[in-house]
Batch of 2 targets.
Target 1
Amino acid sequence: MRDDKSVPPTPRRPALFAAATLTVLCLSATGCGGGDTAQARPGPEAASPSSATASSPAPASPSPARGGPASPTGRKPAPSTSAPGAPSGPLSGKTVVIDPGHNPRNHLHTAEIARQVSIGTTHKECDTTGTSTNGGYAEAEFTLDVAHRMRTLLKAQGAKVVLSHDNDRPFGPCVDERARIGNKAGADAVVSVHADGSAAGNRGFHVILPASVRGGGADTSKIVGPSRDLGTRIAGLFVRATGSAPSNYIGGNTGLDTRKDLGGLNLSSVPKVFIECGNMRDPKDAALLTSASWRQKAAQGIADGISSYLNG
């Protein structure tokens, strides 16, 4: 997500120790722990103006078989109005919004994504182009791929899944619209998927939590606690699914970071977090991010964290 490459590399705690610690924390009743790091850092967040793309509607449930039992009046029962194959599973009745960071065509619309929009407390660019690996694999391609994999996993558990965009618009949506999409859907959880663009040597993932922000159109007071619960569960289960360690350059090896400068969080009225799945500018992280099998593990870890949160 972040175009700022100015964060200097810092010594990395052994990956296995950090990963094991976070996994143990996650598997406790309250999920993973981790202190707030309230210092905000500059960096692009989501993308430009667009409409929500909902997952395909559920098909309607089968009507009674012909020749079935008659009603007491002698008439056959009226056909069922419930949908065939209506979603069922542990997440039935839950709505999850997945927000794939950026848009593959943002770079063709630099003037549009440079437009300033309100993030509640101030104004920022509608969106950015995102980052890429040194080999040219774009963050926006990565985020869409992981989002599609997450959608499949969550729908299989009965959730209604909405994507903020699905490569179906020329740019965007803007960061303020991304927040509105989750709000309008009445989402039980929203996750914005990203990959970082920091310096080589900086490795690992981190989950960004909303800070307590109040001003302008922003008021995160009701979502700070639930979002932290969602984020800590995702962090712990991401470790378990991927084997990746928490970031060695953000969050003090907790895998958690708190920010107040992201419109997608500031303007959300429903629990929401961002996840930076790794650093695209580090060769070792890039090798993971460009691997389809690892992306499936990443999607599984995030989906597991969402399921854990929604199931309490």
Target 2
Amino acid sequence: MFKKIAFLILFLPGIAHAQSSAIGQRTFQYRDSLRDRPVSTEVWYPTDADADKASTDPEYPFIRVPTIRNAPIPLKKFPLIMLSHGTGGGRLNMEWLADILVQKGFIVAAVDHWGNTYDHKTAIDFVTPWNRAQDISFALTQLLQTRELDQAIDSERIGAAGFSIGGYTVLALAGAKLSLESLNNFTETPLGMKEIALPEFPNLKTMVNKEEVRASFEKAPDLKDKRIKAFFAICPAIGQGFRSQKQFESIHDPVYIVGAQSDSIAPIKTNALHYQKMIKGSKLLILPGKTGHYVFLNEARDQLKEKEKQFFMDDKTVNRHHVHQQVGNEAAFFFLGILR
């Protein structure tokens, strides 16, 4: 089946050009003045620039496809995929997915979710995930208004992908409505306490002001973004904030959910499987065996692997590169089918 999917993707109309192109990369520093919040955004795109100019800094900690910084943007339209990173990560943590999608003919834009990144952590931003969907919508608006990009982005063909709490972010953009009460009740159970014990922010629960969280939740607008037409959620988290199918009645666009059998951070029973059961018509892929949560981060170079084993070392039965290729091709096939 995987070979069949790869074959179909390779020969879909309009993809041959993108497969032979180099990858351009640019960084945009946006600021949401209404929320007093920076929204740094990384954009990868197909470019007609000479592929020999592509490079990677030898000190770069991740394994990736070399890119051409600030390469020319082609004068043609491409579909756009917005990308949301996991808790305590960053916009470059899933560059593997950007690489695969760009090579299939997409532009990809990933944002830093302020206060919830590896280099800037605040307790409140780890427990107010509704801010993330607003980051994505804000960045999307800015991208569509940015000179050069507006001529390359097809505003009628926009999708979103996210990992972990970024998976929730994607579903919120699709129209899922979180119940803070349900989520709070779950976090008081033994299983809920285990799920909130995040390695990215030890002792998080003791540092959270519940009234501040509630005030932020009540202030948040409707998070559904009607400009986005397809949603790909990888190991989506906080599934127990959703107890009723009514919370998903605003979802009318295609949703694809990916889970990992041995995920101990966002266990599939309370997250991926739970979401798929609740969202009518959603597709589901569960990666079997010892595949864990952090397999969806980039492949790391040896020095980072040794330093951060929890995040970059997998069970010996798991090949992170192969997982990335499988899930990346699934995402590309899904998006190509919807965003024609």
